[in-house]
């Protein structure tokens, strides 16, 4: 077994709102570096920790974590639509192992996923079915949240399972870093928004287009400095990336959901996927607690056009 990790922010705005040319070039170069590493590493199995944005998971039944035995990408914001190539028996074995480790893991025999899971696959492979891929949903948007410690322990159980496989495993974390996009919160949502949050599966094309246009408009006004959205927080982002890069994952154990949201926005919870990826990598590679991974590549820019503190980190 060998293992590596790629963590990257995603943004639904990547192909919809254009940042300055130098920023776009820097992001494209970061993607190219990650892609080159992955091509060289030549993984035989992908495990991706990904959030969802009320496309696959809703408040009628919201688990903290979920392993997909099969997964269908809904194709939001122009991301790829269709089935992943999930090795179902391996996914089931993985879920059982996590449960055996005393961690409650939900499973789905038909998990619906959105750009949060799909965008890194599109960027790294150009095809969401290119490699056998096990998707693991990590709730990063819908209160209540489990502790960061619980995320770390869940992923540690995943990593211990991966360690026993005769595979080259690429662990992917998708999301973050600081950002506070216009996703409704249940407590302040209108009746119409609550219907979406509760069970808004399979919207009409018109409803999806309207929702996406609202986010695109919000990004344009945020980039123009005409929005009351919470600012991106590059210091918080760099500090979080430092913790990942130096293996100090336990330092996030005490972070509370409210303090994370206050400092870095409601969607900063997506860093849970980065924590998961680094924790799984550490366990899979038998790296002692507090030892740093080998950081192959690191990139960060705060990009308001994408409504994202935008990071890429490649470790092994
Ligand atoms: O709910 C949606 O449709 C997308 C929300 C959203 C907007 C901008 C940046 C993000 O990272 C994000 O998640
Ligand atoms: Fe997201």
Automatic annotation (TrEMBL):
<feature type="domain" description="Extradiol ring-cleavage dioxygenase class III enzyme subunit B">
    <location>
        <begin position="6"/>
        <end position="290"/>
    </location>
</feature>
<comment type="pathway">
    <text>Aromatic compound metabolism; 3-phenylpropanoate degradation.</text>
</comment>
<keyword id="KW-0223">Dioxygenase</keyword>
<comment type="subunit">
    <text>Homotetramer.</text>
</comment>
<keyword id="KW-0560">Oxidoreductase</keyword>
<dbReference type="InterPro" id="IPR004183">
    <property type="entry name" value="Xdiol_dOase_suB"/>
</dbReference>
<dbReference type="Pfam" id="PF02900">
    <property type="entry name" value="LigB"/>
</dbReference>
<dbReference type="InterPro" id="IPR023789">
    <property type="entry name" value="DHPP/DHXA_dioxygenase"/>
</dbReference>
<comment type="function">
    <text>Catalyzes the non-heme iron(II)-dependent oxidative cleavage of 2,3-dihydroxyphenylpropionic acid and 2,3-dihydroxicinnamic acid into 2-hydroxy-6-ketononadienedioate and 2-hydroxy-6-ketononatrienedioate, respectively.</text>
</comment>
<keyword id="KW-0058">Aromatic hydrocarbons catabolism</keyword>
<comment type="similarity">
    <text>Belongs to the LigB/MhpB extradiol dioxygenase family.</text>
</comment>
<protein>
    <recommendedName>
        <fullName>2,3-dihydroxyphenylpropionate/2,3-dihydroxicinnamic acid 1,2-dioxygenase</fullName>
        <ecNumber>1.13.11.16</ecNumber>
    </recommendedName>
</protein>
<feature type="active site" description="Proton donor">
    <location>
        <position position="115"/>
    </location>
</feature>
<keyword id="KW-0408">Iron</keyword>
<feature type="active site" description="Proton acceptor">
    <location>
        <position position="179"/>
    </location>
</feature>
């Amino acid at each position: 077994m060998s293992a590596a990790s790629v963590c990257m922010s995603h943004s639904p705005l990547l192909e919809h709102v254009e940042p300055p040319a130098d920023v776009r070039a820097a992001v494209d170069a970061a993607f190219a570096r990650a892609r080159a590493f992955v091509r060289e590493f030549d993984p035989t199995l992908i495990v991706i920790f990904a959030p969802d944005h009320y496309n696959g998971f809703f408040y009628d039944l919201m688990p903290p974590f979920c392993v997909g035995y099969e997964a269908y990408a809904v194709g939001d914001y122009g991301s790829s639509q269709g089935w992943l190539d999930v090795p179902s028996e391996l996914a089931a074995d993985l879920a059982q192992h996590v449960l055996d480790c005393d961690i409650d893991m939900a499973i789905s025999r038909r998990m619906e996923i959105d750009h949060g899971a799909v965008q890194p696959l599109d960027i790294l492979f150009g095809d969401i079915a290119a490699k056998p891929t096990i998707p693991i949903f990590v709730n990063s948007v819908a209160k209540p949240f489990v502790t960061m410690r619980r995320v770390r322990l869940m992923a540690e159980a995943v990593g211990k399972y991966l360690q026993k496989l005769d595979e080259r495993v690429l662990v992917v974390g998708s999301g973050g870093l600081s950002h506070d996009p216009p996703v409704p919160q249940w407590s302040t949502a209108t009746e119409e928004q609550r219907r979406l949050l509760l069970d808004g599966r399979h919207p009409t094309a018109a409803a999806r287009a309207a929702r996406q246009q609202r986010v695109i408009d919000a990004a344009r006004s945020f980039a123009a400095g005409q929005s009351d959205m919470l600012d991106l927080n590059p210091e918080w982002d760099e500090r979080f990336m430092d913790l990942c890069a130096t293996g100090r994952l336990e330092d996030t154990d005490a972070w509370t959901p409210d303090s994370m949201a206050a400092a870095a926005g409601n969607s900063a919870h997506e860093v849970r996927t980065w924590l998961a990826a680094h924790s799984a990598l550490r366990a899979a590679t038998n790296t002692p607690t507090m030892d740093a991974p080998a950081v192959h590549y690191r990139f960060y820019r705060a990009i308001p056009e994408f409504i994202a503190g935008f990071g890429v980190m490649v470790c092994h």
